[in-house]
User: Fold these one by one.
Assistant:
Number 1:
Amino acid sequence: MGQPTLPRCACCGFRTGCSTCPICFWTDDGRSDVHDDVGTGSRNGDLSLADARLNFSIYGASTPRYKDLVRAPRADERP
Ligand SMILES: [Zn+2]
């Protein structure tokens, strides 16, 4: 029996299974495609998934203001 496969974070790609990812602080709002830029009124606000991924690559968080709140991914959360 392998470990259950948790859903991947749409932003950072790690498998945390949390609605708000502790690694990048993206909140899962059902968007998973970079071209899906419709604001949902969720905690992500008007942030597009493409911008969140870009921010994660630069700051290690989906927005710069969350960069002090995120934590490093664990080995078992890697995609
Ligand atoms: Zn994430």
Number 2:
Amino acid sequence: MPSDSEASVEHHLAASAERADYLVELSNVVRDTSLGRHGPRSLRRLGLVLRALMELTRDPDVSVYLVADTSLLGGHREFGNQAEVRRLRGWVADGLVEEVDDADERVLELARMTASPVVTGDRYVDHRVEHPWIQGNTWQFLKPTARPDGSVALVAMDMGVRSAAEISRRMELSALKKQGLLGPSRTPLTEVIMRTWRCPEPRCTLYDIRKGDRILLPRMRRGVPTCELHGTPLEDEGPRLGTTQLKAVIDGACVARYTLGEGSEAHVGRLPGQVGIALHSLLSPQIARQVSRMHVAVSARSGTVLIRDISTYGTRMRRAGRHGAFGPWEKLPPQTDRPFRPGDEVELAPGVVLTRSGRRFPAELADAWRTEAARVPVPPSAAAPTRRA
Ligand SMILES: [Zn+2]
């Protein structure tokens, strides 16, 4: 179990929502007094959540993007430990916490743009008119829940369907369509994440993907992407090239990651060469014998990720279904590209699995949104846990 020493928390903090595996509504976590007796506000609860995420993902490098209300630091006297307040201020200054007037609204905006899961205890009932996609969501919101031993588990919340908001949902879908037709004055979120943006202020680099580690996703104000700092509408800088991450998982633990960019190809195997993931030092001798030097090729083309078996002994794959279930293992046809989606598992040898992180390419996000928009709303009477199987 990794320690929760001072340094280890920072290790998990991402400076960009797009690069994080999870979004965390920090104010909600810090104030959740059901998570340990640490007073009204405590950063120790974030440490507990990070442990829970490492446990859930079995990834010691799992990363989070923190969003907090300005009132979290505004009420600094409620922190029992003032060293935590200084530490939190440092994170804000370093761009590791996005501090906003309304964290709920920002978290939901980011969750929708990135499709990343959110750690929060909030059910966002009052936001469902603006965010009807929350309706019936069973996978994207994880509630930190204390276990009897003081540790924390993350439990996926069934957000349920609120009947009053169902009408609003249809309203928004039609409004979105209209926005798409209205042109540049209103930009649908699908467009926002597929483009790069630039603030007209000459020295502002908050959205510049070529500079710095911190890239904000635009704040949407009345349908217009605007600069968080200057409040000015952002200028469209052209299409955004996506990246995704491959994860090598051995005996259930993530042991290596590789970032794959649009238009590139990587090999995974025992000793695949310079581009990709080399597994030789991570495998026992008997398993290593079953893994080819170059076992699979993964490529990113036109916003989708493809996998190709190039091994001697073959590769199996199983597809991610709804609600975290998997389809059956199937052998990959040799030398043939197949779609490789977030959640799918590719098995090179027993216990040697390749996955993608939850991060999706912009084109995949747009596809997911189209599917979501086409989905027939479910009446509350049918809101049983097995619906839409
Ligand atoms: Zn700016």
